[in-house]
Amino acid sequence: MTDSSVAAFRAASGPVARTRVWDLPTRLFHWALAVAVIGMIVTGLNGAMEWHFRIGYSVMALLLFRLLWGFVGGRWSRFGAFAYGPGSLAAYLRGRAHPDHLIGHTPLGALSVFAVLAILVLQVATGLMADDEISASGPLTRFVSGEIVGMATGWHKAQGKWIVIALASLHVLAVLFYVLIKRHRLVRPMVSGDKLVPSESGQVAPSRDDAASRWLALVLFALCAGVAWWISSLRV
């Protein structure tokens, strides 16, 4: 968020109030995925392949859940809330973002979210079909051709791995920049779920974060974990 965007947000919003923006399932997903991706990188670089596979299945379950939660989750966690067009991104970069675009994911933040989700989905998918011909073979290798296995293995061990590391590093650096240099509170809302937003009635719809939505999230994640477990059981 640029300084001019912050000024525009405050000028347009007037009084502010704490509003639930990030529901609990989204927050848990965020931190669990961060830990899992770090674990996946560390185990992959150190050749701890059994743990690499286990963490990879966990990442798969988390990604499946987030794809579903992007349609039925809290207001600001849904993909429709931050699927911005090029015009919105350009306006944000010029410091002319609409106030609503500064509540959940900003246009630039949304681009980062979609990029991370896409590369992780691709990395998990190729990992399921990869085979290093030594000790690690994905559970889906026997269902695809040798050519596909070779392509998946090459991507997973080379380009995909370094893109994941680059995106993870860029994300951490961006957060540090905004927290330490710009003095913006990015971490606290992803812990508490609340952000300071315009307080006018009806202007900002909070994310639903009640017991029913949390139970729904738990059921969805259990189903996603079940799918991940089933795919893992195909490994021979």
TrEMBL record:
Its main location: membrane. Gene3D superfamilies: Transmembrane di-heme cytochromes, Chain C. Signal peptide: none annotated. Keywords: Cell membrane, Membrane, Transmembrane, Transmembrane helix. The keyword Flavoprotein does not apply. GO terms for biological process: respiratory electron transport chain. InterPro entries: Cyt_b561_bac/Ni-Hgenase, Di-haem_cyt_TM, Hydrogenase_cytochrome. Pfam families: Ni_hydr_CYTB. The chain crosses the membrane at residues 28-48, 55-72, 107-130, 162-181, 215-232. It is a multi-pass membrane protein. GO terms for cellular component: plasma membrane. One of its GO terms (molecular function) is heme binding. Residues 21-193 form the Cytochrome b561 bacterial/Ni-hydrogenase domain. It is found in: Cell membrane. This is Cytochrome B. It comes from Variovorax guangxiensis.
